[in-house]
Write a structure and sequence with these properties.
Blueprint: H1 3-10, H2 18-22, H3 35-42, H4 52-59, H5 63-73, H6 87-94, H7 96-111, H8 118-141, H9 148-157, H10 160-169, H11 171-183, H12 187-195, H13 199-209, H14 214-219, H15 232-247, H16 254-265, H17 273-276, H18 280-287, H19 290-296
Length: 297
């Protein structure tokens, strides 16, 4: 699909000034991750020498991240409600691995902080964090607790390229998302026609620039139709991101939904994941998590 055919068939893009399209350059700005985040990503939480004191030294210079960590530690979810006053206590409460994920979540969320279009809130913050929380949970349900933290990051970063495109293209990208959702168009086709790249490709560029682990970069490329005997992390990631999409109110076509159901059942659980994981009670529980509350807020 290309924009010309969309215009001819639906008349949807006639309102969009062509000057806006021609004014968009081919270069794509990918923001660097803060130094604190880069250091935290390299920190080995499994090392016998790891400690809350060491992590505290790394994150102390970034007061914004520190305040967000204290906010989460004092949330009702952890039952502390204002009693955690110092960073070391917050780190001990959350755990080193969970803390790494929280810091990366805070940083990637900040990419879209200044983007005020309502569609971005759903696609760039609520959807990724739901995917991450579901991925972490699936890893534990499927008896792979060792993958829980990595699965969280894989779900969170799977579509980080959407944030990159939104940062560069602003309201025009919001328009593409809205039209894709409203009319069932393929968003990647629309991105390619408008920008010469897709959010998947932009995400790969970001992952390489940020030196993300190869396992995460691989998971970002997977789709329900291109699993090719993928490993457990890949299966968990793909299932979770599409469950997260549905949970955030983003429509799925019937073919994709059926593929996700089939993938899930191959795990050994014959239930419908959209009913089991996204029923009203479970979705309410996921949305009560402080990470989702931060995204929704």
């Amino acid at each position: 699909m290309n924009l010309d055919s969309c215009t001819a068939e639906k008349g949807l893009f006639l309102r969009l000034p062509m000057a806006t399209l021609s004014a968009m350059g081919d270069s794509m700005v990918i923001p660097p991750l803060p130094q604190v985040v880069m250091e935290v990503m390299k920190y080995d939480a499994d090392s016998p020498d790891s400690s809350a004191a060491e992590v505290e030294k790394i994150i102390a210079p970034d007061q914004g991240i520190c305040s967000e960590i204290l906010r989460v530690a004092n949330s009702a979810y952890y039952g502390r409600s204002g009693r955690v006053k110092v960073m070391r206590d917050a780190i001990t409460l959350l755990g080193l691995k969970a803390l790494k994920n929280l810091i990366i979540f805070i940083s990637t969320r900040q990419i879209a902080t200044d983007l005020k279009n309502p569609v971005f809130k759903k696609y760039l913050t609520e959807y990724p964090v739901l995917s991450a929380l579901i991925a972490e949970e699936l890893a534990k349900r499927w008896k792979h607790p060792e993958l829980a933290e990595e699965a969280f990051l894989a779900g969170l970063l799977y579509n980080i390229g959407m944030s990159i495109l939104a940062l560069n293209k602003g309201d025009h990208y919001a328009f593409l998302i809205e039209q894709a959702e409203k009319n069932g168009f393929d968003l990647r086709d629309m991105e390619k026609s408008s920008y010469g790249t897709t959010h998947s490709e932009a995400g790969q560029q970001a992952a390489q620039q940020w030196n993300l682990p190869e396992s995460l970069q691989h998971s970002m490329l997977l789709t329900p139709s291109s699993m090719n005997g993928s490993d457990d992390l890949g299966n968990i990631t793909v299932i979770s991101v599409f469950l997260g999409m549905q949970g955030a109110g983003i429509p799925l076509d019937s073919k994709t939904k059926a593929a996700v159901q089939d993938m899930y059942r191959k795990s050994g659980d014959q239930a419908d994941p959209f009913e089991k994981i996204l029923n009203e009670q479970q979705l309410k529980r996921l949305k009560s998590h402080p990470y989702f509350q931060m995204a929704a807020g």
